[in-house]
Amino acid sequence: MDTNPPKSSSAAAPSHSDGVKLRERQFNDLVQFVSDRTGRKRINTKGQVRQSAWVRLFQLAWKPEHLELVSGMFPRWRDTGKSFRPVHAEMFARRCEELKCPLLALKVFGDHTKYGFGLNSLPAGRQLIHSLYGKYPLEKTMTAASLFGIYGLPAVGSDSVSCAMLYAACVRSGDPNARVVAESLKRPLTKQIVRTGAVKEPKDRLQRAQHHTKPTLWLAQAIRQIKTARGEQGLPSKPQFWQTESQAPPSDGLTAKVVESPS
Description:
The protein is mainly alpha-helical. 58% of the residues lie in helices and 4% in strands. It has 13 helices and three strands, in the order H-H-H-H-H-H-H-H-H-H-H-E-H-H-E-E. The chain has helices at 16-36, 52-60, 64-71, 74-79, 86-98, 102-109, 112-115, 122-133, 138-150, 160-173, 176-196, 205-209, 214-232, and strands at 199-201, 242-243, 256-260. A three-stranded parallel β-sheet has the order 1-3-2. Helix 10 (160-173) runs antiparallel to helix 11.
């Protein structure tokens, strides 16, 4: 029978300080529980660790040091004969971005031999690129993009969201070599935008906060950044960057058909 550590309960509503302490205790208890029951030599052979325990660890983590600690436990899961699922890659990439430590995610995904934790999900790959391309040197984003091929994900150029973010990172860098990469991404990005039609970017705050809408927001944001960067560098760009559904698709590949949903 699968076993998880008992959940703490309290009759009184906890204060913020009490809530942090409770979360810290729950995190530490679950770390201990997982550590004792994974690896080549298990300290405790009673009960098994569920796949959901890793998701719970990511959720309970509230500082980068927590995720660093959890990632150090990844090899124990492999040594137990288990493998991580796409949901784990997605949640880890997401929490690394939320806790402002995306370089940790890049390090872990980039060293499968050590961690045994693969970038086995396109949403996780998108999240990784998004966490890096706006705040870190271009080479970090390029490294993340290279992992798509290593892990058998669709090529970055075939995914409009990933392609647009990498394009934006390249065109903003001003580096001549990066500009060559950007130009190579322009055609596939154009084809995808024209083929898929209008990108409907929600304005409603609650809709925008939902995680499943993030790829649409990331795509729209990246395209705006591409236009701005090209304009600042004096590169060709049509004046009508945002197109409506009734307008003809762009001919230069630099504009996207975007229809904003009513608020």
